[in-house]
Design goal:
The complex is a heterodimer of chains A (about 400) and B (about 300). Chain A has about 400 residues and is α/β, with parallel strands linked by helices. Chain A is about 40% helix and about 20% strand. Chain A has 2 domains: about 240 residues, Thiamin diphosphate (ThDP)-binding fold, Pyr/PP domains (Rossmann fold), CATH 3.40.50; about 130 residues, Rossmann fold (3-Layer(aba) Sandwich), CATH 3.40.50. Chain A has 13 helices and 16 strands. Chain A is globular, with a radius of gyration of 21 Å. Chain B is built from 11 helices and 8 strands. In chain B, helix 3 packs parallel to helix 5. The chains are: A alpha/beta (about 400), B alpha/beta (about 300).
């Protein structure tokens, strides 16, 4: 495919990105709202447009297991899931990162049951926050397409060797038809050359993977894992920089919008970012000194970049799409950001809103309410815990 | 039917692919089975192994007993992992990313990993038709965690979670028939084996390796620790299991049943010969043993009938 702009569903754009990445193995199990991605991939395989093994597994647990086997022999590997699927594969999700098996997952974020819900929030990814995957959030179709490709480059970098989850809001993004600028196949091939993986399973060079660790070695293995994730950071930046050089579209771990002189900022992850920017434009016209801070890279957490964006503001209004039940301190994002700023000079106060659970719409009007109410709360010092926005009854 | 190619020690691969110095219990027939399976497969083999005795005893970091590429991932997913290895290699070779080569893709697990927790992934992998072999090492309980019952624990056996007591015979259910379950998938090759009959075992593994598509081999692996017998008697008890027809050696080759070993009248023994002496069965009464004898012969006669069908 030559460089083209097309109006397509974001799920289809993901599948096209995976085709352009020339993956070797796709293993997936159907779950809403991820299905369109793998349906289209199976079509691409059936039509011979993608030369890959499409493994229609018996469960998500097996999907992640097949991906581990495939990545272990050095094949380029892709999967996709949501919510209960992620919960079922979570055992192996952790092992994939611990065994340093590179693969890419499109995670169509969806609420965890119960009650059963197929709609969007971030409870699924937060459940596996500490697994050691590189974790990226995107906010529109173009970002999704771009970051699926960047993710392969990050994952397979011999200095990284980690699985990467690209988080996109289920339905809100997966089922949205947007204009997508597809890059030329050749450009993608040059960005993602396939190289044999060092230490891949092969009879010519027998290695043992996934060995048993006694207490004498487990601690060191965990530190090794921590350093692996931490040290991936500059290589993640490199992957984005190279993509930016080739396409003109640039990505940073923390992105800001109209923050130059902002006294307070709304902090978002994922598709919230688009609405937040519109509302900030409106509020700016009314004279509010407000900006948007967007966390694009969730793991490894970009501590320095976030602090740089946050310090010196009066307050941050942090949007969460999941609850840390019984944590009593806010949603997972706010809890983490409070910790990142604790005790620092010039640290803003943090007001936390949990909203948009199970896809409940958070409109521009809602954002406006949240920002203005949050600002007022901060001024009054009401900064503990969180507010579940729009709670009825 | 293929001719037997391994009929004496001189036919056996001399190279060892499973190194000595592992941490298996004395008299472990399961690790012997692993060694024989690898000898039959040769060096061009990739193994995915489930969590369990064989994984623990062979891979304590930083050492390994494996001289073929080996991966352990989790308890229930060896079949899924090896199907991923096979899929990955198939794509890499087809696309010319790596040189083409015949490789044996082998999943291995114990009876718990196979018949209980890993049944779904195994069934999925067999159904999808990967070119792989799955080997179940059946020692008839969760030995690694301390002799708890599995669905492959035989009727009447006392384990730590099916203890014989005043009101219980111990395991009160029938052993799950994994061989028939595997065969019901319509896969090209299914067989039973026992390391007490090493040539038969290796022959079947070779056959599985030469068969395109999925193959399943169920190996009775005597566990002196769990069966409460003397470590020096593991091989003997494997023979007794086969000669009493408790564990018949047979194959289902493209749907065709064949007993690969029929105990002669001279060798055929009652099940009591197999049961007595095993601590796990010592509480059984004569009437219990009669029940087991009848069930054993009924199952064996069914196999005889099936293997006589053309």
């Amino acid at each position: 495919m030559a460089k083209t702009r097309k109006g397509v569903e974001v799920s289809i754009a993901i599948a096209e990105a995976v085709r352009q990445a020339d993956v070797d193995v796709v293993a997936a199990y159907p779950i809403t709202p991820q299905t369109h991605i793998v349906e289209h991939l199976s079509e691409l395989v059936a039509d011979g447009e993608l030369d890959a093994e499409f493994v229609p597994v018996d469960s998500e647990h097996s999907a992640m297991s097949v991906c581990c086997g495939s990545a272990a022999v050095g094949a380029r590997t892709f999967t996709s899931t949501s919510a209960q699927g992620l919960a079922l594969m979570s055992e192996i999700y952790f092992i994939a990162a611990a065994m340093r098996l590179p693969m890419v997952m499109a995670l169509a974020n969806r609420s965890l049951s119960s009650p059963l819900s197929i709609w969007n929030d971030h409870s699924d990814i937060m459940m596996v926050r500490d697994a050691g995957w590189i974790c990226i959030f995107v906010e529109n179709g173009q970002e999704t397409y771009d970051n699926i490709l960047c993710a392969f480059r990050m994952a397979e970098n011999p200095e990284v060797m980690l699985p990467v989850a690209v988080n996109l809001d289920g339905f809100i993004l997966t089922h949205m038809i947007e204009p997508i600028l597809y890059e030329d196949d050749d450009l993608v091939r040059s960005y993602l050359p396939w190289k044999p993986m060092k230490n891949a399973l092969h009879p010519d060079r027998p290695v043992s993977m996934g060995c048993f660790g006694m207490p004498e070695i487990y601690t060191e293995a965990q530190m090794n894992r921590e350093m692996g994730v931490r040290n991936s950071y500059p290589h993640i930046l490199d992957a984005w920089e190279e993509w930016g050089r080739l396409t003109g579209r640039h990505y940073r771990p923390v992105e800001t919008y109209r923050c130059e002189d902002a006294e307070y900022c709304i902090v978002t992850m994922g598709s919230y970012g688009e609405t937040a920017m519109e509302v900030v434009d409106m509020l700016r016209e009314e004279g509010e000194k407000v900006g948007v801070i967007k966390i694009r890279l969730w793991r490894p957490f970009p501590l320095e970049e976030f602090r740089k964006a946050a310090l010196g503001r009066k307050c941050l209004i942090v949007m969460d799409r999941a609850i840390t039940f019984g944590g009593n301190q806010g949603g997972p994002v706010a809890t983490e950001l409070r910790s990142a700023l604790y005790g620092m000079d010039g640290a803003p106060s943090i007001v936390n809103y949990v909203a948009g659970l199970a896809g409940r719409d958070v409109s521009r009007k809602d954002f406006r309410n949240i920002i203005l109410e949050g600002k007022a709360k901060a001024a009054k010092g009401e900064v503990d815990g969180f507010t579940l926005y729009g709670l009825r009854g | 039917m293929a001719k037997t190619s391994i009929s004496s020690p001189k036919h056996v691969e001399r190279e060892e692919f499973f190194a000595p110095g592992h941490r298996a219990c004395q008299g472990c027939a399961e690790v012997l089975a692993v060694r024989l399976v690898l000898k039959a497969l040769g060096k061009d083999t990739i193994v995915a192994m489930a969590t369990g005795c064989m994984e623990i005893i062979s891979s304590p970091l930083p050492i390994t007993s494996w001289r073929v590429p080996w991966i352990h991932n989790a308890f229930e997913n060896a079949a899924a992992v090896i199907s991923g290895c096979e899929s990955g290699m198939k794509a890499l070779m087809r696309k010319g990313k790596i040189p083409a080569k015949k490789i044996n893709f082998v999943g291995m697990g114990g009876d718990g990993a196979t018949a209980d927790i890993g049944m779904g992934p195994l069934s999925g992998a067999l159904e999808r038709g990967h070119d792989m072999i799955y080997v179940c090492y059946d020692n008839e309980a969760y030995m690694n965690t301390g002799i708890q019952r599995s669905s492959c624990t035989p009727y009447g056996a006392s384990t730590t979670t099916s203890p014989a007591g005043k009101k219980s015979i111990g395991q009160h259910t029938q052993k799950k028939n994994m061989v028939e379950i595997a065969a019901a998938h319509g896969i090209p090759y299914v067989a039973t084996a026992c390391p007490s009959f090493p040539f038969d075992l290796m022959e079947k593994v070779k056959k599985a390796s030469e068969t395109a598509g999925p193959a399943y081999i169920h190996i009775l692996s005597v566990c002196p620790t769990g069966w409460r017998i003397n470590p020096s008697e593991a091989i003997k008890y494997g023979r007794l299991a086969v000669n009493s027809c408790v564990f018949p050696l047979y194959e289902v080759d493209h749907g065709k049943y064949r007993l690969t070993y029929k105990p002669s009248d001279k060798k055929l023994i009652p099940v009591s010969e197999y049961l007595k002496g095993q601590g796990r069965f010592r509480h059984l009464t004569d009437s219990d043993i009669e029940t087991i004898q009848a069930a054993t012969m009924k199952a064996y006669e069914r196999l005889l009938r099936l293997s006589e069908q053309e």
